[in-house]
Amino acid sequence: MGEDGLGPVRLPVDRESYQFDDWTIGYTKSHILKSVCINGETCVAGEPGCCELCVYNFALALPHLPDMVFHKNVLRISHASGAQLEFNPLDALKLVRNEKLDLKVACSDEWRESRPEAAHTSDKVKPFDWTFTTEYAGTTNDRFRAEPTEQRIDMFKLMRKEEILFYHNLTLFEDELHDHGISLLSVKVRVMPSGFYILLRFFLRVDNVLLRSNDTRFHYEKGNDYVLKEFTHREAKVEQLKHIPPALFTNPDHIVDKLPVVRKVNEKLTIVKPE
């Protein structure tokens, strides 16, 4: 029983799935990626026994990884037809720019120099996007056909009170930018009797400089053969947000909708039935 005496304690689980009509919605989760090679830096790309850290380093070629990469955290939505939508940190980090960053802040050099890996490289300040900004919008297979659409996700419909059949929130990666802000990628899924809703959110706060979010929403309504997808990029410099209480800056759920929209893309992901 829980401390309130109202029911059994829900113990943490590392995987769970839920069947919703022809859809299977499931996740796996585990600890963060180790920060050192367990094979003494002898790993070879593509060979059996290559450690998980080196798999990431070989795939990404970034000078540094975020402080916390939850490499086994994956959300997967599969349809009986074979259509699949997945969210994982490796594909997200592949979209981080491995080039000089336009954003200039006083802490950037300090952040790079603070990394323990820097002491073992000859190019300690190799330029790259140290904010880990990504426009990752999920990974789909060829059983989904993506096309532009004028349809919009009905957020008012999603705000209606409805029974929650299944819910989970996964962090894919996180970095505190050497105590100068936060870079965070997370994904939430909610299943209701009418369908399911997914929010993939990249949130960046560089203290006293910038706030940015890349939100990708997915909405499936029961009976449809498609999923609506909406990508929204929002961004503002802190000086543009003086009318907003600074206390709100620490919570993405409170601040994101107050940021101006820079770009928006709407798509329809139609299920391609096998012949």
What is this structure, in a nutshell?
The chain is mainly beta and 275 residues long. Helices cover 11% and strands 36% of the residues.
- What strand line-up does the widest sheet have? 3-8-9-10-11-12-13-7
Beta fraction of the residues?
35-45%
Distance between the termini: 51 Å
Low-confidence stretches: 118-125
Query: Mean pLDDT, as a whole number?
Result: 88
Number of strands: 13
Secondary structure tally, helices? 5
Net shape: globular
Main sheet attributes: strand count, strand direction, barrel closure? 8 strands, antiparallel
Structural class by helix and strand composition: mainly beta
GO cellular component, one term: cytosol
Pfam families: TIP41
Family: Belongs to the TIP41 family.
Protein name: TIP41-like protein
Description:
- This protein is mainly β and 275 residues long.
- The protein has one domain (14-271).
- It is 11% helix and 36% strand.
- It contains 5 helices and 13 strands.
- The protein has helices at residues 52-60, 89-93, 107-114, 155-158, 252-255, and strands spanning 15-20, 23-28, 68-69, 74-79, 84-87, 139-140, 144-148, 166-175, 181-192, 195-206, 210-221, 226-237, 261-271.
- Strands 3-8-9-10-11-12-13-7 form an 8-stranded antiparallel sheet, with no helix packed on it. Strands 1-2-4-5-6 form a 5-stranded antiparallel sheet.
- It is globular.
- This is TIP41-like protein.
- Pfam families: TIP41.
- Belongs to the TIP41 family.
- One of its GO terms (cellular component) is cytosol.
- It comes from Anopheles stephensi (Indo-Pakistan malaria mosquito).
